[in-house]
DNA sequence: AATCGTAGCAACCGCCGTACA
DNA sequence: TTGTACGGCGGTTGCTACGAT
């Protein structure tokens, strides 16, 4: 659906190396890629296009597969409960799209990211909520101006902090290095979060560990967590956050409308409640 | 009917972490 | 220990579709 920038002018050594095709994928290319992956697996994206006879860079093939061709991809619109889950997870994890996608079977990080940027962030803004911090925009303005809050996406580089990235590991079924097929990898000062949560029923614990700015801006240190707990633990923890009825209360800020009905985003603000 | 503005989203880019020689 | 290759992630771009004028 695009790309007219000459590859040679932009980093991408792969694309620059040869006259590789860019832009929208054709049905024929899709079929070639899908057949090849089904037959051979996708353990080496770099060499896959050559082996499959595609004039694409490995990254492009990987992206196409991950975001479009995987058989488990859901093509239906994001449902209300999924939207609700995205909101909760974003509040907890910030722009960790791959982590969020890991909790939504059949959804890709790209899809969720797009949905957030085109729908949810605007929805939150319309309700006077800062999509970055999930705090009321007026409160957010105490720290940064509202305009910055509206420009919800460009903060990562200012405060870089990423979860540890595990190397590729084969997923079940077709052998692909697909993060979304694995349990979500670790996140945050998890041990402290868990202990705080255990001691206080989450309430309070998150206030310390999840200063809104830190959490949403990446201060949520994924690195320390994976050293202390396993993926399964973190996955279970997220499940508990997602499913626990307690959490429903936790997400409701004092004085906020507790109702989720009528299409409103009715979550409260766990960060705000600690202020 | 033509033009303009905007929303949605597929695809690309640069960067970073991990694996391995 | 260092350098290189590769995979993966989040941010950004820009094309397409569609509604408004």
UniProtKB/TrEMBL annotation:
Subcellular location: Nucleus
Gene3D superfamilies named in the record: Homeodomain-like
GO cellular component: nucleus
Domain Myb-like: 17-69, 70-120
GO molecular function (one): DNA binding
Database matches in PANTHER family: F14D16.11-RELATED (PTHR47994:SF5)
SUPFAM superfamilies on file: Homeodomain-like
Name this protein carries in UniProt: Uncharacterized protein
Annotated source species: Oryza sativa subsp. indica (Rice)
Domain of life of the organism encoding this protein: Eukaryota
Region (Disordered): 160-180
One of the Pfam families matching this protein, by short name: Myb_DNA-binding
Domain (HTH myb-type) ranges: 17-69, 70-124
Keywords: DNA-binding, Nucleus, Repeat, Transcription, Transcription regulation
């Amino acid at each position: 659906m695009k790309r007219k920038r000459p590859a040679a002018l932009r980093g991408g050594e792969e694309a620059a190396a040869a006259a590789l095709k860019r832009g929208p994928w054709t049905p024929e290319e899709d079929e070639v890629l899908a057949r090849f992956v089904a037959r051979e697996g996708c353990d080496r994206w770099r060499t896959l296009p050559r082996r499959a006879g595609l004039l694409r860079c490995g990254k492009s093939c990987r992206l196409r597969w991950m975001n479009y061709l995987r058989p488990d991809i859901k093509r239906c619109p994001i449902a209300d409960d999924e939207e609700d889950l995205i909101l909760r997870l974003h509040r907890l994890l910030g722009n960790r799209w791959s982590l969020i996608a890991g909790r939504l079977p059949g959804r890709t990080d790209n899809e969720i990211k797009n949905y957030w940027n085109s729908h949810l962030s605007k929805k939150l803004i319309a309700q006077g909520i800062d999509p970055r911090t999930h705090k009321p925009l007026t409160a957010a303005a105490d720290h940064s101006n509202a305009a910055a809050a509206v420009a919800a996406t460009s903060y990562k580089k200012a405060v870089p902090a990423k979860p540890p990235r595990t190397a590729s590991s084969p997923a079940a079924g077709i052998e692909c290095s697909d993060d979304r097929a694995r349990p979500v990898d670790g996140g945050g000062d998890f041990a402290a979060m868990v202990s705080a949560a255990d001691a206080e029923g989450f309430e309070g614990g998150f206030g310390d560990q999840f200063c809104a700015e830190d959490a949403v801006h990446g201060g949520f240190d994924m690195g320390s967590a994976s050293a202390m707990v396993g993926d399964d633990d973190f996955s279970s923890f997220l499940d508990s956050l997602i499913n626990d009825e307690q959490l429903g209360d936790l997400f409701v800020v004092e004085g906020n409308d507790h109702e989720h009905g009528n299409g409103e985003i009715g979550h409260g603000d766990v960060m705000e409640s600690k202020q």
